[in-house]
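Page 42, continued from yesterday. The earlier attempt failed because a stray header line got pasted into the input along with the sequence. Redoing it now with the clean sequence only.
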Amino acid sequence: MVGVTTLLSSGDRPATGSKCVIANGAVPSDQCCRFVSGWDGGAQQMSFRSIRRKIRDALSDVVPNWMPFNYVFAVPKFHRANGRFPVGESSPEFEFNDFVFWRMIRNDRRMIEKVCTDKQFAKIYARSFPGVHVAETIDVFRLERGRTLGDFEAFLARHLGRRLVAKPTHSSGPILFLDQSPSAADVAKFFAASKVDFFRDKRETQYRGLEKKILIEENISVDGKLSDYKFYVVKGIPLYSSMVFDRFGDISCAVMDLNDLSVIETEFAKLKFPAHFEPPAALPEMIDAAGRLAAEFDFVRVDLYHVNGRVHFGEFTFSPSAGSDPMSNKVWTRRFARQILDILRER
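This time it went through. Structure tokens are written below.
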């Protein structure tokens, strides 16, 4: 297993030598990049929203990373997504999203969690596990202060037309497919989205201080399709999996209890249930890989793919959607939260 020091001192060495989609599993491809392009509420409203956001970002940059302050910055988005304020563990209404919220605003992240939040370093970590494959890193663009869209376009030019994708290492969301040369507008939207700071924006503390980079890596999708298997793991024990099918096309999602392989009747992240569903044949192999990959963490979501008979690592997610993914089955999401707490207390 690769240690934290090794991860910090090494890196994915670049190899020698259209379309943009939102890939967080919750935005259909026909709505790609729309969230960056503006708001339809009129120029005055958009200007007000822009000014308000700039003020908020400026305050977030100077306010210390301390739990009470983090709560103030994070709670409005939680409230908008869940229709209520977060509740504590003692409440009978304590849900999975509450668990995520309280953990993400705590300023007590272990070094290995911060390192593995970075997708480039997470891939190095995952590569040390037998039976787990990772997409090859081809190049890295560092979003240092002063780097412009023009700089990125010049960097991107040598990779256009190849079976590659571009994605930020320090956030989740946009993916740029390079095999069909994307439009200038899509590149600009992707570049703007890649500059978002998740600590500043949502007070997800594991993102604080992460270097901003854009990763160029091999495209592992098959015929433009890729299913994403997200495993929720506590102390090395995989509890549930949300399985996102055809994430770049007719997206759908099913949630499975990994204890008895039953399907949970819930709408997850506003995604429809697939018309035809059966567990993938490689599910036991992926469950085993997720448990091994997550063994060093109290709680993490491990994103995996199964492509051409091989398990591929995607990323580690320590605060899924910042606690804002809607879940319609309240009985289940409350049970899920209690299961997590029980395991953490026992171990």
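Notes: The chain is about 35% helix and 20% strand.
Reminder to self: strip header lines before submitting.
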